[in-house]
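[step 3/7] fold_predict: job queued, chain A
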Amino acid sequence: MRVRPNTVLAVAYDLLVFFRQVGKPPVEVTSADVFGFIGAQRTGFDGLGLRVVVDGVGLSARTVRRRLSSVSGLFGYLLARGEVPVNPVPRGLPTRRERQRPRQGVPLVRTPRTLPAILAPVEVDALVAALRTERDRAMALAMVLGGLRRCEVLGLRLGDVRAGERRLFIAEGKGGHQRLVPISSRFFVSLGAYLAHERPAEAGTDRVFVVLKGPRRGRPLSAAGVDEVLAGARRRAGLRHGSCHQLRHTCLTRLREAGMALEAVQAQAGHASIESTRIYLHLADDWLAGQYRRAAEAIDAQVLIDHPVQAAGGGVR
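[step 4/7] structure written:
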């Protein structure tokens, strides 16, 4: 199984936070310690000076849930090795239907389902216009026209570019999955200009996107570097949003609005499950409005058949 370095770092930090909080070796951790950890993370009071979210009380439910997943994974591993007697992280809180479905209790941490923010066409144009180099424009267009993740953009190698086919080979997709995705010619125009005029000839890597200036010139661009580029463009364009993930969401939403089949959007996005893709049904306002309109018209037609409207003169209208 392929795991990205950022995933390893995130899990390591989650485990560090947990064991600092409980202050016990793994073999002594109990379910009570786990519940105490959840409460401390949600309230933001842990007494250890660990960072909490700025815009609310404690950490977000998604962060706490991810940390619990990391902790549960560790104890599952230790349990398989016989190093602990039990996994102290409960699968879920018991319910009245537990006898019928013993493994489907209430989740320990409920995470709200929120719709991701997307950019309007005028905002996309303003953001792209505020980017200062062809490299930066090519990276942004890869996300907003091709739906690529930030890590997939940074993972592109020169051999992955299929300019004649107007496609990109994603060799390092999420979970190690590979795919071949089509992308607009606008991306290849910016990419071609970057490769011809901006990319250092002395670059010692086959990564497509590299640092253009400074002591790291010619070395692969980092995720922090991409975020810094977009943050500067947002500031110059006067936009409040426009992150890498929001550019990707914008692309996939527009594809769905334009009539692209959900299965095709799934393939473009690189989603392992179509359930992850269904969110774009809700983001695409025209799709929901059209579905509602057709259903409402069918209901109205049935009502007229069952209960004809009486005209003022007594006849059926």
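[step 5/7] annotate
Confidence is low (pLDDT under 50) at residues 47-56, 94-102.
The radius of gyration is 25 Å.
exit 0
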